[in-house]
Amino acid sequence: MEWLQEKVLRHHTPDRLLIVLDCCYAGAVGDAAPDPVVANLRRRLAQALDIQAPDTNLGVASSMRKTLAAVSPWQRAYERDGATCYSAALLRGLNGATVLEDGRVTWQSLHALLQRELADYQPGEYGFDRSEGVVLAYYPDRPRVRTPNHQPFVIPHVPLPDADFVGREEELQRLAAMLTGDDASDVALLPAITGIGGIGKTRLAIEFVHRYRHHFPDGIFWLNMERPETIEAQIAACGGTRGLRLFADDQSELSSRQSTDFDGGMRNAERLSLHQRAELVRTIWEQPERRLIIFDNLEDPALLHQWRPRGGGSRLLITTRRQTWATTSGVRPLPLTTLSDAAGQALLLRPRAADRGCTIDQLLADPAEAKAAQAIIQELGGLPLALTLAGGYLAKSSVTLTRYLELLRNESVRHQSLNRELSEGLPQAERASIVAAFALSY
After folding, report:
1. The domain defined by 153-335 carries CATH number 3.40.109.10
2. CA distances from 211 to 85, 184, 198 (A)
3. What is the per-residue burial (b if ≥16 Cβ within 10 Å, else e) of 149-173?
């Protein structure tokens, strides 16, 4: 407080200086115990914050003094989860979330952001400003853009067949509750579908995206996080024609004659590098509109810290084999368990029933076959990937369930049915085998 008095509050026209005071219940300074330093600070704060008009006697047109406050001087600032919500929003704005069309961040644009994001807490604007439009930050490569009038939908997976999605309705509803609500706190919640390889994490994410697509009118963007060196290029690709329509898909960089007018058309503009295009997409992700971003196969917490949006209305869904996350990460694990017997039976036998034009009950009319089906599900541990592979094999094979059970018990994961490369029905064909999936998890 002594430093604050000496360096700032004693001077009417300080040099270019921005101070962010993030204090626990900052407004409670009025309730502090008697202390000369605190009393002097309170007096000076009241004097500074209560000035609502320029002091013409001070003269210089370029001087400026302005305070953006979370609340009025003597109210307590709202906090959640140990952080000052106001300061978090303020820093997001300074970091580019409130950039104007020309790349500037000003008092006015910051205040507008705070009023929008913290409307319930009435952030204040105090003091006087004799230099309208003072630039607090400048991002020449990150102008504010208007999103296209279509729903950007950048996802490499088509909807799964009904036969390939069973037994996860409860998990779908939990995801919907976490990601589709209107509460501002939902943005900070990062649900992570967790579990071993082959348990159905990506399947669940695919089903959620297609089933709840209408809840994210401003876009859905899918990123595969397995290879860190590809992430920036994937983000830049989200600005293509299927996404935000900022860039032409067939160009690694914009030509010198083409760019986007940010309403879906093309206009003349400068060439943008891969990094600049990725940063422009990230800027849009940090705006208030509601979007869904999927980080598929995210195992390294450092990648989450590096690439997650820092503000705005985007919701984030993670799939990961990592079971535990630091509480400070905001990640809320949603562990997937093996399928129930009923769901496992449907995944195992629906393809065979469809191929033979009968029902599952007709396939299991023989008590011995019904018993074998139950034993196969147990033998495969209720693992969705294993059941999908086995179901695909049984659909095209004449072997009985009883015989197939014998083969599994003799050969285990080495049986050919569990090591086939399926061309469809799986989100990741290159890891279709049980051995590959388990090896990756291990």
Report:
1. no
2. 32, 22, 21
3. eeebebbebeebeebbbbbbeebee
- Please report, for the chain, the start and end positions of each structural domain, with discontinuous segments joined by +: 2-138, 153-335, 341-441
Q: What is the spatial distance between Cα 231 and Cα 295, in angstroms, rounded to a whole number? A: 10
317 vs 332: CA distance, rounded Å: 10
CB 275 within 8 A of CB 256: no
pTM comes to 0.59
**Number of Cβ within a 10 Å radius of residue 74:** 15
Tally of CB atoms within 10 A around 294: 25
pLDDT, tens digit, 9 for 90 and up, residues 137-167:
887 766 554 445 678 889 988 887 766 678 8
**62-76, 140-154, 215-229, 293-307: which has the minimum mean pLDDT?**
62-76
The answer to whether the CB of 89 falls within 8 A of the CB of 156 is no
* DSSP character at residue 34: P
Phi, psi angle pair for 293, to nearest 5°:
-120, 130
DSSP secondary structure, 342-359, as one string = HHHHHHHHHHHHHHHTS-
Provide the 10 A C-beta neighbour count for residue 221.
Answer: 25
